[in-house]
Amino acid sequence: MSDEKQLSSEESLQLITSMINKAKNSFYDSGISLLLWGSAVSIAAFVTYLQVQYQFSIGFDIWWLVLAAIIPQVIISVREAKIRKVISYDHTAMNAVWITYAITIFGLVAYQNMIPSATDAILKNEGWVLIKHYTSGTKPDEQIRPFTLSVTSIYILIYAFPTLITGIIKRFTAMIIGAVIAYGLFIASFYTSFKYDMVLAGITALVCWFIPGIILRTKYLKLKQKERNV
User: Fold this and answer.
1) Domain spans of the chain, in order of start
2) pLDDT tens sequence across 23-75
3) Pairing state of beta strands 130-132 and 142-144?
């Protein structure tokens, strides 16, 4: 006969519940990353709109704020990896989705910055120039450099991609709704100028990431509180 203490049914249930809660916490998103990116992108977009609308400059490119957000994101990921004891298939899939998303965004940024210069070089080799002609005749024609058209619309479309996948896999309604709204804003951006595209991009970041991040963070803190009480 074993001398080990036999657990009662109630004690066994408590032990199993505690283990399940710890397993949940090991891969359950704390919501911090969504809050980080939702706030960074929305602030950058809204500030860009204000600069264009009211013709002022803050002295630097506000979108560097989004690039700088990579640093705290790396710190967050390392810390969460240390405390994560269970790596689920869903978590692996989410990592793949968001890594692909990040690569796509960086590719689009590179495209946005390199294509105008490349196009300008091609046009010069062909002996062409781009001219802005005012049909009203109120202003003289002026030479302009090539630029990418409606690239913000593409950003909005790409923002919806990982959001919808995450919402479906995690069965997280807030992110599914956010993605649907993003697709609607993408269509709306067909008919808006650049400054209003920035407003739409800011709203997209809020509905896709910031608001779902608040919901996740609230759930995460409640889960942590329950764990302390077990």
Assistant:
1) 13-229
2) 444 334 788 889 999 999 999 999 999 999 999 999 998 988 888 888 888 78
3) antiparallel
